[in-house]
Amino acid sequence: MKLYDYFRSSAAYRVRIALNLKGLVPERAFVHLARGQQRAGDYLSVNPQGLVPALVTDDGHVLSQSLAIVDWLDETHPSPPLLPADPIGRARVRSIALAIACDIHPLNNLRVLNYLSNTFGVTADQRNGWYKYWIDVGFEALETRLAGEPQTGTYCHGAAPTLADVCLVPQVANARRFHVDLSPYPTIVRIDAACVALPAFADAAPAKQPDAE
Amino acid sequence: MKLYDYFRSSAAYRVRIALNLKGLVPERAFVHLARGQQRAGDYLSVNPQGLVPALVTDDGHVLSQSLAIVDWLDETHPSPPLLPADPIGRARVRSIALAIACDIHPLNNLRVLNYLSNTFGVTADQRNGWYKYWIDVGFEALETRLAGEPQTGTYCHGAAPTLADVCLVPQVANARRFHVDLSPYPTIVRIDAACVALPAFADAAPAKQPDAE
């Protein structure tokens, strides 16, 4: 299989973690988002949405959207599982993952930040304020859940990493890169630390990728 | 089961469609987003994220995030299925659903539009431009996929509605409400028409809900 990747893409980072957890080593191709390579014709012919990541399966199917890719990996390579076995547990893990993947991350995507600067003419300070605001709104709710729900364990859900952690760690990395104060979120910080102590998470970090700058 | 709902919430609209497709009739409670009821303590004690929808199961579990709820419904009430049986088909359907649920809808949420107006002071015209821009970016890519991929049928994936259609129809309704020109997206318009011809979709429309204004 072949992963279209970009070191700084949080969505690609999720897929890298999931691949590492599954012990899978894909071929890699790098699409430089900050240079606009995702809008070039040769990449659009792979993924018309022009977003990274995309995963090409061994039989040539092109999969897009990080959460769909992780679900496919989990269905086709079930060990270790990235979702609990029980439907309520699965719903909880999916809900945490989606609270990050739908309600925080898309608002802070590069294309969105560019729109704010280029079309609305917001200042760098305003842009950073926006970035931090959506992380804080999302993390406040997530901290409440993770700190209060008995299913939380060493990781977001119990004693093994799941799809929820696969989404959490790249989002925490973004928060740190933008100097968000994480002290109000001790449970998130604790779970992130447990995750990044695992090579599957550590090796997926942006700074460790061949295309890192 | 009990659905916390708001007629105009696209995420709640998805869950209403899925419940109708499954033939399930939940108890309903209405949370008025435009009046800020989702930030009130009694709703936050149900869903700390302060977002609609939430679904309370018969044994008292609170599920949040529309796509996690639909997945839970599909796992616990498998007929009719909302995902294909094959992993590649499931990945395609999830990818279409997520391209809407992650990459279009969150950018046009009420709380985001309020931030643009209240914090950045953008004009109503600029706000509408933002709204339409993200729909156009998302629909252009989606139209390319749906028009070009052989798995597209009467619906987004084959001859029966799936999670992809559950996400598509509320997004098309939003596009119409904001007067987005849909003529560049004939496949999307065709699939939307096939869906809304079904009572499960038609009965879930915002205007048909008891709390509609």
Question: What key phrases describe this protein's structure?
Answer:
213 residues, Glutaredoxin, alpha+beta, 4-stranded mixed beta sheet, homodimer, Glutathione S-transferase Yfyf (Class Pi), Chain A, domain 2, 2 domains
Description of the molecule:
The structure is a homodimer of 213-residue chains. Chain A has 213 residues and is of the alpha+beta class. Chain A has 2 domains: 2-80, Glutaredoxin (3-Layer(aba) Sandwich); 87-201, Glutathione S-transferase Yfyf (Class Pi), Chain A, domain 2 (Up-down Bundle). In chain A, 50% of the residues lie in helices and 7% in strands. The first copy, chain A, contains 9 helices and 4 strands, in the order βαβαββααααααα. Chain A has helices at 10-22, 41-44, 66-76, 87-101, 110-118, 124-148, 163-177, 186-196, 199-202; strands at 2-5, 27-30, 54-56, 62-64. Chain A has a 4-stranded mixed sheet, with helices on one face. The longest helix of chain A is centred in the middle third of the chain and has 25 residues, at 124-148. Chain A is globular, with a radius of gyration of 17 Å. Chain A starts with a strand and ends in an 11-residue tail after the last helix. At the A-B interface, helix 3, helix 4, helix 5 and helix 6 of A face helix 3, helix 4, helix 5 and helix 6 of B.
Find the biggest chain interface: A-B, 50 and 49 residues
State the assembly state of the protein chains: homodimer
In N-to-C order, the SSE pattern of chain A is EHEHEEHHHHHHH
SS element count, helices of chain A = 9
Measure the end-to-end span of chain A: 25 Å
Low-confidence stretches of chain A: none
